[in-house]
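User: My instructor asked us to take a sequence, write out its structure as tokens, and then describe one feature of it. I'm not sure where to start. Here is the sequence I was given:
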Amino acid sequence: MMTLDVSNAVHTTSLPLPGARHGKVRDMYSLPPDQDGPRVLMVASDRISAFDVIMPTPIPGKGQLLTSISAGWFHWLRGRGIINDHLLSLDVPSIPGADAPTLASLEGRIMVCRAVRIIPVECVARGYLAGSGWAEYKQSQTVCGIKLPAGLRQGDRLPEPIFTPATKADAGHDENISFEGACSAIGGALATRLRDVTLRLYAAAREHAAARGVILADTKFEFGFALGADGTPTDRLLLADEVLTPDSSRYWPADTWSPGRDQPSYDKQFMREHLLRLEQAGLWDRTPPGPELPADVVEGTLSRYREAAQRLFAAASL
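Assistant: Let's start with the prediction itself. The structure tokens for your sequence are:
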């Protein structure tokens, strides 16, 4: 069992490496290239965000759980032969100028990856009616413009999985677009290829999760073209970023699934519900800075990530 000593959490990193970029959860750095081209170091911090605001309280160990789940899926998907990915190693690389405590703090939370030029379309697969898809369906009986049967309930399984792309936003929420919109953004041939790969990945992952008592309701993938030795994009398409984590996917316990309501989930919805109560009480208005999270919310959130890791890949030691 992990300790909830927040002092041991990694809220942010500042490594003596070039090209530092800090996202909502991950910190990225450039590494010296190998014989095949540029590499990047991805560090999964213990930060957590909601409503596009990073909370001041970290979730200690969350970054290690996310990395464990991503790595588990990357390795499992390689056996399906659907598409290559960008993961090169989980070993902490030599970082000149980084002291021993800094290097120790990276254990279990890093991925050394092939550098890619990310395609600016989020590739979302949905197998169940939830989230923004449910909100749209109630208005128009569609999800991202795709007509669905009448009479579906919140949380219902769709007749077949659908591909619902979204634009990648530099700030704020990503925006759902139609398949035709994706074709306009990146070209019809590439959009079709990404749709087909996305649905194959989702179908394989959903089957694996179901065998472990977990419903994979929806997920989003990112893809990119590997950079060559000269730093320019090649034609080698790779699955990139994180993959099938509770931060990028909606996981539900199969034994409690009951359409017609919100489903219990293995993600940060537990924390969101706490924040919504604060909002209703007039104690927060979704603007930075976020409120400090109480210990029970930290523990409840972490326990959901931990259970997802344990169920999906028997990561009992995490």
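For the description part of your assignment, you could build on this observation: The two ends are 7 Å apart (CA to CA). Try explaining in your own words what that tells you about the chain.
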